[in-house]
Amino acid sequence: MKPFNYKGNKKGMMDDLFDLLFTVIVGFFVFFFLNGVLEQSARGSVDVSQQQLARFVAEASAVTQLRVAVQQGKEFPPERVAEHVEQELAKSSVIAGKTIARCEDYETRLDCQQDVLQAGSDGRCRWKKTGCETQRARGQLQ
Q1: Rounded to an integer, what distance in angstroms lies between the CA atom of residue 130 and that of residue 68?
Q2: By CB atoms within 10 Å of each CB, which of 38, 64, 73, 142 scores lowest?
Q3: Which of residues 3 and 86 earns the better pLDDT score?
Q4: Residue 57 in contact with residue 99, Cβ under 8 Å?
Q5: How far is the C-alpha of 142 from the C-alpha of 134, rounded, in Å?
Q6: What is the mean pLDDT of residues 57-78?
Q7: Is-contact 120 135, C-beta < 8 A?
Q8: What is the DSSP letter of 138?
Q9: How far apart are CA 57 and CA 55, in angstroms?
Q10: Is 98 left (phi over 0), alpha (psi -120 to 50) or beta?
């Protein structure tokens, strides 16, 4: 067997080199394009998930408030339950990923004292050792 002795033309070698470079460059751009498309899709999914979670937490908070009101003796006719829940949902909002519908939903002293959403509609929010509470105009805590 003869040893390999390549004496091919340089034009063919250059053509193969440019084919290789072209393939690598195209692959590089395809990779970045696919990465951008997939990342955008994932980011959109996260946003939708966070919105749905915030809506769920707001609904759970509204239903909990309704349950507490019923346990305290207030009566809600069945046709007014949905209306009450919708009113509570309209009052709630999301701040830094946390759904705020009432004073008790604030987690920090600063947020409680500022009460930017005016969650304490029948008074103002006041921070105590146990957390944020609604202070009524008469000075009683709810």
Answers
A1: 19
A2: 73
A3: 86
A4: yes
A5: 6
A6: 79
A7: yes
A8: T
A9: 6
A10: beta
**CA pair distance 98, 75, nearest whole angstrom:** 29
CA distance 73 to 86: 21
Whether 136 has a pLDDT exceeding 60, the answer reads: no
* Most confident stretch, 27-31, 73-77, 91-95, 135-139: 27-31
Domain ranges of the chain: 10-101
d(CA 73, CA 67): 10
Query: How far apart are the C-alpha atoms of 125 and 103, rounded to whole Å?
Result: 6
Q: Residue type at 72?
A: Q
Percentages of the chain per state (helix, strand, coil), in multiples of 5: 60, 15, 25
CA angle 124, 129, 131 (to 5 degrees): 50
Rounded CA separation 19/23 (Å): 6
The lowest-confidence range among 27-31, 41-45, 77-81, 104-108 is: 104-108
State the residue for tokens 């600063």: 110
Q: Which of 138, 115, 113 is nearest to 127 (CA)?
A: 113
